[in-house]
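Lysophospholipase L1, pasting as requested.
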Amino acid sequence: MTRFPCFSLALLFAGLIFLKTLMPQSQKSVMISQAPSGKSFLALGDSYTIGESVENKDRWSVQLTQLLRKDSVFIQKHDIIARSGWTTAELIEGIKQRKITETYDMVALLIGVNNQYRSQSVETYRWEFRKLLKICSKFTGNKESKVMVLSIPDWGVTPFARNRDKNQLSREIDEFNNVAREECGNFGITFIDITSISRQQTGPEMIASDNLHFSGLMYGLWAQKALETAKQILK
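C-alpha cells follow.
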C-alpha cells in the first residue's frame, strides 16, 4: 500500500481526539423539563456520550429524553459525566471527582472504545467495567433494573480508520463487547446492542465532521434503540 506521510500525520493528529480532552464538557447537568413528576437520568461514558463534534441537542442521551417526552415520560434532571478519550479507569476517576450523593431513576453507561483503542487488555476492562456497574447500581439505590448499558460502536466504519485493519478492529471491539454483555448478565443489567447499527448505517451522513466520531443522526438511532428499555425503567 502506498504511504502518504502528510496524510499519516493528519491521521495521527486525529487519533489524539480519542486520547485527549478537546473541550471541558464533562460533568454536565441539563435541565430538560420542570414537570413536577419528572424523572432523573444520569449518562456515563466517553466521547460517544458527551457527543464529540455534535451539538448538545444531538447527544444520544439528550435525544432519548426528547423521545421519552413524546411518550409523556418527562426527564426533569439529566446529568452527564463523560469526556472524550476516557477509558473505564478515567471514567471511574471522573465520577469520584464529581462526588455525587443523590440517586437517579435511570443510569446509562457506554464505555470501552478507548480501552480498545489504546490496546488495553480485556481482563483490565472486565475488572473496571464490573466496578462501574456497581457504581451505576449505587446511583439507582442498588436497583440494577434501572441501569442500562450500550455496547461499544465500531469506529472502524469511519474515514479515520480507512488505513486500519477493519476486520481486526471489529474483532477487538467484539471482544470488549462480549465482556460487557457477560458482566451485564451477571448483574441482571440490560445490555443494548448499538454496534450492529454502527456497522449497518455507514453513509457519510452518519459521520461527524471530524471523520472519527458519529453524527447526530447516528446518535438518534441509538436513542431509538434504547427507548423501549428506558420506558420500562421509568414506568
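Note for the archive: The two ends are 55 Å apart (CA to CA).
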